[in-house]
């Protein structure tokens, strides 16, 4: 009874403390991942138990018509990738298989326990390993790939054989389709149908495979594309119609007369064909359904009776019932393109990209994607839906978030800057109403689509600096009063090609001059007067900047004010910014790790600085988290050792309040919950999460609200020291163990934080409860 009363009191106390600061609670535990992906582009669908399983370029999502529940799955949920190419349900066991372009295969009975077949992916003998189709029967899985057919024993989880030649055909030709019927394996390769007995002793022997044909009613020389089995019968699709094999004879299947783009089976007996936006289905009961959809169709499945799941190429999955058509699309961005990010105050903006490989505008008009973190909804802002000014007709390639004013600035590659607040456009700066210039002249009214915003940043006075690529005047400034100043083009070297911008603590404007190093504009503390400003060129060579490479790709300013520079061959740092502000050229220094330059010969694409002044470095080989000075690599995340979507990183941005690290990859957006937040300027009380901490909790305990470089002492209420940990920025992480490595007992505890000299002291309380 006393123990129960004690626990109840602790729970009450924890509830009171939690209620006082619930808004400060981090979104999730450190070290966890979360993807922010689009599922609009469908690649296939299957059904099990009335639930639809849809593969997309964002992974997988399920839909339960009975409950209406929609759930998404990605790499952080155990999928081996996010761009599946094929999906299949084994009719005997209900097990689902998902194939990928790299040959990986995921398999599961339940989605919380995903297994993998990696043999094809690990095979170095074949270059193109794409999985195109599956068939299965009696613990055998038949995998159609771009180099042939692979057979698995699903009970043992091992490959039995691979077949790369069929009959007299050339070897290593792609197998586009596979089916099982009449005790035989049927495949389509090089637009021909081959078959072999399932009990053949050696399927690798080309002689085991028999060429089918000619098919009755198929003119000589016409092509075949797919095979499918339904109701114990075999069907084939060609460029002259659908055919069925009966008693060893192929005949035209007249219910599906005409040319079709896709043939598929659903369940045991269902069969369907697809042509653009039309699906024609025959159920197991022999009933036919002819349906037209609002977009091109990728695949379909029969859920039950007169309920169908239709996967569209560009608009997700739709549920079809008699007279009712319902979109079933998980919330997310419009697509998985993300070139740059703007993040802060729990808000996320995505600039999907606005130029091609030659930095020419794509005129894609994809707009901007907005998401308030913690919510489910997404907002797609385009000129077509009035979310953006109609004059914005190009894609967005740059983004900057103003933390102080909760305002995002999105730069288009041709139409100036759109200012957004809470996901809505509040202003548009273009050549006719600002200092932004076009390519040929200050404002060519016939060429307003050539104001290519290549970089944006604020200085300490609140001035917004904007760099423009190939512009009449490549650097302009807007002061807080809304007045614009242009830096004359003659200040810059000829043929400048400015693709990014950073303002340091001395007010120097650092600009990436594509493949020509860096340009730094110093303005002598008079940003509105260009006469006394000058432009320095920094490049390779001693006393010229000493960059490791003139191909600069990334800029970042750390919490000490130093400028970190990422190049195509590594990373370097400029420390003496005071000399640069005086107009002097100084050389950079490369951080040293393991007796060599940090990330030497690595393409560095972006750099972000977290609350603990550590550097998150994006490369073409994943993400590196390095120490404050760059002399230690703390983590390297790749798609091979983590849920990272791709090793090619476009941008990294960190929400200062939560420490969530957003990573824009070539395949979409994912985040990692970091353990560092922005340090508190003045402590208003520490917040501990979770609170209460139950004794069976195995995760990290976060203590937020500390000042920079603070130490946190965890003590009992009587003052007994339990543990001391160091904060990263505004957050310290504790594993719940005391100084002897033992789990801490139930009770009330204090967290006491202070700087190195005892400055900025702060206190927090939390409860540990045994259960």
Distance between the termini: 15 Å
Structural class: mainly beta
Percent helix range: under 10%
The count of strands amounts to 65
Separate helix tally = 3
The average pLDDT is: 92
Overall outline: globular
- Report on the biggest sheet: 8 strands, antiparallel
Please mark out the parts with pLDDT under 50 across 5 or more consecutive residues, or reply none: 1-5, 18-26
| Rg computed from alpha carbons, rounded to a whole number of angstroms | 30 Å
How much strand? over 45%
Task: Describe this protein's structure.
This protein is mostly beta strands. Helix content is 4%, strand content 45%. Strands 34, 35, 36, 37, 38, 39, 40 and 41 form an 8-stranded antiparallel beta sheet that branches. Strands 58-60-63-62-61-64-65-59 form an 8-stranded mixed beta sheet, covered by helices on one side. The radius of gyration is 30 Å and the shape is globular.
